[in-house]
Recover the amino acids of this structure.
C-alpha cells in the first residue's frame, strides 16, 4: 500500500461488470480466467462474451498462478509519479500454464536479469481496497 508521501498507483474502478468478478477473486488471492461453455475457448482478459464464438455463457476457473515470461521490458522512465518513485519496474507478458496470456508487473530485485522463457509465480499487490496480480521469478529447483 502506498504511504502518505507516495502517490497511489492507478487501479481499476468499480462497478465494472466484466472485470469486477476477476478483482473480487484477486482479493482472495485467486488468479482467475474464463472458458466458453459453448466452444471451450479460453477467454482472458475477463469479458462478457467469448472471443471465438461470441457466446455469453462463460465459466470462471482458478489458475495455479504459474507460467513463463513471453516478453519482458524494464521501464526506466515513467510519467506517473506512483511508478516514477519505484523505477526501474519490469513488466511482462506472462503465458500461464492454463493457456492464457496476461500483462503484468514482475516484482524482482534485479529486473535486468529477467529472461524470456523464465518461470514466474503469481504474487499480489495490495493497493487500498484493490488487490492486483503480479509475478515473481519462480524458485529454482
Ligand atoms: Zn466460444
Amino acid at each position: 500500500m502506498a504511504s502518505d508521501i507516495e502517490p497511489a498507483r492507478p487501479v481499476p474502478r468499480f462497478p465494472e461488470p466484466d472485470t469486477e468478478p476477476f478483482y473480487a477473486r484477486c482479493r482472495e488471492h485467486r488468479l482467475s480466467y474464463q472458458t466458453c461453455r459453448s466452444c471451450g475457448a479460453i477467454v482472458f482478459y475477463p469479458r462478457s462474451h467469448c472471443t471465438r464464438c461470441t457466446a455469453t455463457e462463460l465459466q470462471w476457473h482458478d489458475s495455479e498462478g504459474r507460467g513463463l515470461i513471453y516478453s519482458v521490458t524494464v521501464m526506466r522512465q515513467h510519467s506517473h509519479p506512483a511508478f516514477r518513485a519505484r523505477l526501474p519496474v519490469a513488466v511482462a507478458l506472462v503465458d500461464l500454464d492454463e493457456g492464457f496470456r496476461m500483462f503484468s508487473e514482475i516484482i524482482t530485485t534485479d529486473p535486468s536479469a529477467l529472461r524470456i522463457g523464465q518461470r514466474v509465480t503469481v504474487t499480489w499487490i495490495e493497493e487500498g481496497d484493490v488487490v492486483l496480480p503480479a509475478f515473481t521469478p519462480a524458485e529454482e529447483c
In short: The chain has two domains: 16-62, 64-141.
